[in-house]
Amino acid sequence: MTNENDLTGTRFEWMSRDEITAWQDQRLPIIVKQAAKSPWYARVFAEKGINPDDIKGLEDLSALPFTTKADLRESYPDGMLAVPKSEVVRMHTSSGTTGKPTAIMHTREDLECWSEIMARSMAMAGFTKDDVFQNMSGYGLFSGGLGIHMGSEKLGMWTIPAAAGNTARSLMLIRDFNVTGVHATPSYMMHVAEAMLQRGEDPRELPLKRAICGAEPYTEEMRKKLEELYDMKVFNNYGLSEMNGPGIAFECPYQSGMHLWEDSYIMEIVDPVTLKPVPEGETGELVLTNLRRMGMPIIRYRTRDLTHLVKGECPCGRVHRRIARFVGRSDDMLVIKGVNVFPSQIEEVIMRKPWLGGNYLITITTRKQLDDLALDVEVNRSSFDGNLDTLRARKAELEADLKSQLGFGVTVNIVEQGSLPVSEGKAKRVVDKRETL
Amino acid sequence: MWNLVVVLAENKPGKLAKIADILGKNNVDILMTDIDDEGQYGIVRLLTSNPDKARNVLYNENITAALTKVALVEIPDKAGALSVIMKILAEEKINVKQAMGCILDRGKRAAFIIIPDGDPAEVEEKLAKRGIRILEEI
């Protein structure tokens, strides 16, 4: 352990496996005792007969109860707060992907820790204080805005809080201030590139070198497409506001999985049904425990995000274990004709076809008592050659590829570019109109 | 060689009106329209006075428009004229995928458009050799 004041966080970043385990072993009892100060955990521990003093280290983790989104809602507004209210300096709410938001409170020290892992993540991706960084994520209650902002400032970058929307102004700032790094959702980056191409402008002429994309799931194909369109590196970021926000796991320059910062979180990957750990490398639900957030620690939080551990050592030398790109959320999974389907599987097929624009909408209906999946996809306007035969052949090929990917037939509707709704936050990709029985 | 403007358009009311409106505002004459219905979307083909301009003004209004090469010939606007050109097409063994026409000058001139199963330039060449007038402008 070197300089404790090192702001780029090399102290935690380059820990050895043994150091991480020792740190977690030491932190878990502290964080459990801290959580027990909140009315919620005091009650839950009492009900389950758990004495916080009995939690001696990592081996006692499995004795602790899981925490769910429903628990967070039930403890709303501040049932999980473990410090006096006067210690709170910031509140965020979850982005409300599903249902009502939940509130998360931070102390000054919590924000300091979060800024540190965020700055550490950005430095790992290659950002330096010489970069000009434009944050095109929504600010306000959404943790992605201020979380990235704090990290960018902490790293010393020239930070432009452009926020989401107003594409013309964002582009003006990028050009005028020679912006080299951005943060936005992948669908927004795609939307900006399309808008530029339609005006006959080339996104590769922008000064951008690196982007952080996150806040919604996207495929490797979408990343490659964005990297090509802008001629820049796109880094995958994972976060959820319940556990702070962005920066929980982040890619290093090798871009093979995201290093989850195990000094700040204990990670478990469990079977979403049995809640038992899955064998290493198999897909399961990510479960996280805060190790550094003292204001509102959450124990064994079920993220609903499905991933697996990337096996082996990362060539970058960091030993914080890597999680793979998410295959979906355990509650995003669609069951169609008895088959488990993730929207990401469909997106993968779409992104492989340059004649498609990238924007799509999945609609599920009931037809003759059977599930029917329809896919509206926008053509890429510049690829349209005016030939109906080409279009028919492309459509048939897309339908065949989807059938082989999903195992059942999909009705494809080709639509004009620009006819599907574009969202500047999280893209709404699925409409389920099925009759519930 | 003449180009048709081809538009991929969602099959809903008002789409054609929008296309016609944009072309009208830009002083592009529409001489003929043809629509292929593909269910959710349609393919609209337009014979216009200025295909390049038509395609560009539509494209700039976010419409999925492209140009496609066709064989465009002039025939007299009188009974029997079509039968003459059909015979020539048969004799030259030209397979026609789609054909359409419009009157340019009532009782005098008509335009006949051929989308062949092959290269339209070859078709024009064959027809020219048989004395058919190829239209270079309209």
Outline the fold blueprint.
The complex is a heterodimer of chains A (about 425) and B (about 140).
Chain A: H1 10-13, H2 17-35, H3 39-48, H4 69-74, E1 88-93, E2 103-107, H5 108-125, E3 132-135, H6 143-155, E4 158-160, H7 167-176, E5 181-184, H8 186-198, E6 210-213, H9 220-230, E7 233-238, E8 249-251, E9 258-260, E10 265-270, E11 284-290, E12 301-307, E13 309-310, E14 322-323, E15 328-329, E16 334-336, E17 339-341, H10 343-351, E18 356-367, E19 370-379, H11 388-406, E20 411-415, E21 430-432
Parallel strand pairs in A: 3-4, 3-5, 5-6, 6-7, 18-21, 19-20
Antiparallel strand pairs in A: 1-2, 7-8, 8-9, 9-14, 10-11, 11-12, 12-15, 13-14, 16-17, 18-19
Chain B: E1 2-10, H1 15-25, E2 30-37, E3 41-48, H2 51-60, E4 64-76, H3 81-91, E5 96-105, E6 109-116, H4 120-129, E7 133-134
Antiparallel strand pairs in B: 1-3, 1-4, 2-3, 4-6, 4-7, 5-6
Briefly, what is this?
The complex is a heterodimer of chains A (437) and B (138). In chain A, 30% of the residues lie in helices and 23% in strands.
